[in-house]
Design goal:
Elements (H helix, E strand, L loop, with lengths): L2 H10 L1 H6 L1 H5 L1 H10 L6 E5 L5 H6 L5 E6 L2 H13 L5 E5 L12 E7 L8 H11 E12 L12 H18 L9 H10 L3 E13 H7 L4 H12 L3 H7 L2 E3 L2 E14 L3
Parallel strand pairs: 1-2, 1-4, 2-3, 4-5
Antiparallel strand pairs: 5-8, 6-8, 7-8
Helix pairs in contact: 8-11
Bound molecules: S-adenosylmethionine.
The site of S-adenosylmethionine has 23 residues, from α1 and α5.
């Protein structure tokens, strides 16, 4: 995935992420803080901070948070939001998740929420996190997942592979900077391969309103119609995963998030 496409997409729609319900008020924010139990002396890094919602959720509980992102317009929104909320311990930094510009063993906590599916090389991102974490440090990760046997039981591997492929295509049609969501099991394996230990994982369902989701990245009416058809005509495995339904006259579906907490040994 071309990283300039990420900057173009998010640069053009940065302001929408300040108020996006999923990002600003998603249940995974409070859950993440609860699971991590941050300490007042901690130095924290939020990777791909977007409008800064995750960095700001941790700011009251730690000494300092660096809110980092590849897209300058997002960093501007994050800095503005931090100032509006009166946080003096939040700094912004321009950083590629796959080449973090920080020294080894710099942070007690690295967070990354609803973003790795944009990274072209997730294993490199995870090894960068392992490098910048202090021994004993925590990775707190949230990301949308693709269907696999763990999240969507009752289907044979080929049905799940097809559903995963179409799901990622569905996401990429709406947002060309979408690279790929990983499955729940794949995430755990990858984190362990980077030398971190998964200490907790869970799945959380996010209720999505189709119209709001489809329009946030500026999709054309034709693309929105194609997305609607994919959702309504999905295979049984993809329907079991996305659960398309009508609520109060509007089309809704479910996205599953993985919430994973991992520790660097030592
Ligand atoms: C959906 S937003 C993040 C939401 C945010 N973390 C939150 O909790 O509200 C995705 C962000 O990932 C950033 N991004 C995508 N690829 C990146 C990369 N390789 N390195 C750093 N940031 C990246 C985008 O610029 C965008 O701001």
């Amino acid at each position: 995935m071309n990283k300039s496409l990420v900057q173009e997409q998010f640069g053009a729609h940065a302001a929408a992420y300040v108020t996006s319900t999923v990002h600003a008020k998603g249940a995974s924010l409070a859950r993440l803080v609860q699971l991590v139990a941050p300490q007042p002396h901690w130095q924290a890094l939020d990777v791909a901070t977007g409008a800064g919602h995750t960095a700001l959720a941790f700011a009251p509980h730690v000494d300092k948070v660096i809110a980092s992102d590849l897209t300058q317009e997002m960093l501007t929104e994050a800095a503005k939001l931090a100032a509006e909320k009166g946080f003096r311990n939040v700094e912004t930094a321009h950083a590629d998740a796959e080449a973090l510009p920080f020294a080894d063993a710099s942070f007690e906590l690295v967070t990354c929420r609803i973003a790795p599916h944009h990274f072209p090389d997730i294993p490199t991102f995870v090894s960068e996190v392992a490098r910048v974490l202090k021994p004993g440090g925590t990775l707190a990760l949230v990301d949308n997942i693709e269907p696999d046997a763990e999240s969507t039981p009752g289907f044979v591997p080929i049905e799940l592979r097809d559903a995963a492929l179409i799901y990622n295509t569905f996401e990429r049609m709406r947002d060309p900077s979408h690279s790929r969501c990983l499955g729940m099991t794949e995430w755990s394996e990858l984190i362990e391969e980077a030398g971190l230990r998964v200490v907790h994982k869970e799945r959380a369902a996010k209720e999505m309103q189709f119209e709001a989701w489809a329009t946030r990245m500026g999709s054309s009416p034709e693309t929105i119609e194609r997305l609607r058809r994919i959702l309504l005509e999905a295979s049984p495995a993809l329907k079991a995963f996305l659960k398309p339904r009508t609520v109060e006259g509007g089309l809704c579906f479910t996205l599953d998030e993985a919430i994973i907490i991992a520790r660097k040994p030592g």
